[in-house]
Amino acid sequence: MTQIADIIIIGGGIAGISAAARLAPHAKIVVLEGEPHLAYHSTGRSAAIFIRNYGNATLRALNGVSFSQLAGDMIGDNTLSQRGEMLLVREQDHAHLETYMLGADGVDQLTPAEACAMVPALKQDQFISAIYEADAQDIDVDLLVQGCARMARGAGAQIVTSAPVTALRRDAQTWQISTSNEIYEAPIVINAAGAWADRIADMAGVPQLGLQPMRRSAVMMGVPAGMDVRNWPLFGGIAEDWYAKPDGDRLMISPADADPVEPQDAWPDDMVLAEGLFRFEQMVDIPVIKPSHSWAGLRSFVPDHTPVCGFDSEHEGFFWLAGQGGYGVQTSPALSRLTADLVLQRESELSGDVLAGLSPARFR
Questions:
Q1: Exposure letters 32-60 (e unless 16+ CB within 10 A, then b)
Q2: What does the alpha-carbon distance between residue 298 and residue 195 come to, in Å, rounded to a whole number?
Q3: Fewer CB near the last or first residue (10 Å), C or N of the chain?
């Protein structure tokens, strides 16, 4: 039997589940997630950090809107905790520094000695300066996802897991979506399928946007006895070729890789991890030991590296919520609110320039 809804959301990562939380009080919502549980792919493997100055001008506008939402305004629980971010600048990194500082707010420049006072393991002779964003925050991703799911379910949304979409077509007035067990129908479908968003579009007969999943890997590594890293900031190279983030009494270390791959359940490449650990080792007095475990996730970008949020101009009722890249968790409050505003035909708090920068019409 066909299940009827007002809006069907494809994807149960943070994009889809936060959109469901915003829309459920106003419409009958069904969320379809192909995996057995929510946030299995990119969301569940995020570095879990809020950095206000991360990304281009459009993304920074989304970051600014999202901060208070992550701090408790969205789900009622504060998902943020103080961390800080320090980026190290070598002699050859001036171009990266200029790009990062363009339009940056709340960033202090540090001498090598000041940087080493915050992260004593740094090799002071390996960099010429650093920048520090005190307002960078850890994000409790699980708390955020579960809070959004609770909000959505509490307002009547149906969240269906283990329900990969097998067919998607438009009838006269509605979209019909088939899974392995059920058929669903709604006038609006929100494509929040992450790395699979272009494949969902192709299934629907909607032109793709050129979405490219990029693999990002990480390891968890212990530190020598007596070294307390718990209050260190996230630290790494401003060229984004490695970073490390405290996780309890260990360090999560990433080579900051961005290797193009097909949509998949991503796994790390041992050589890529080794190269990243080598770059880390050049900058710190911490012996590299065998990591306790490693993993990889996907960060999916459209060509201009800016998310896509809006109705497709050529296909009625098909809404894009994709291309969040490495910014998906921290921008989810702003993008989910914009999704609700556009779907419910409300005025958005975002500027016209930001709306244009996010619209799928820029690719048509």
A1: bbbbeebbbbbbbbbbbbbbbbbbeebbb
A2: 7
A3: N
φ, ψ for residue 166 (rounded to 5)? -110, -20
Look up the CATH superfamily of 2-48+141-209+304-363: FAD/NAD(P)-binding domain (3.50.50.60)
pLDDT reading at 364 higher than 90 = no
- pLDDT of 283 above 80: yes
Q: What Cα–Cα distance (Å) separates residue 304 from each residue in 19, 21, 170, 212, 320?
A: 23, 28, 29, 11, 15
Cβ neighbours around 337 below 10 Å, total: 22
pLDDT in tens, 177-199: 999 889 999 999 999 999 999 99
Tokens 């996907």: give the residue: 298
Residue 89 has pLDDT above 90, yes or no: yes
**pTM for the structure as a whole:** 0.96
**pLDDT at 1 exceeding the cut of 80:** no
- CATH T-level assignment (fold) for domain 85-134+212-301: D-Amino Acid Oxidase; Chain A, domain 2 (3.30.9)
Sign of CA dihedral 260, 261, 263, 266: negative
Which helix (H) or strand (E) element contains residue 282? helix 270-283
Would the pLDDT of 310 be above 90?
yes
Tokens at 263, concatenated: 């949509």
Task: Tell me how far apart the alpha carbons of residues 245 and 47 are, in angstroms, rounded to a whole number.
Answer: 8
DSSP code of residue 75: T
Residue 141 · residue 330 · CB < 8 Å: no
Residue 246 to residue 35: CA distance in whole angstroms: 29
CA distances from 213 to 62, 200, 201, 257, 355 (A): 21, 14, 15, 12, 23
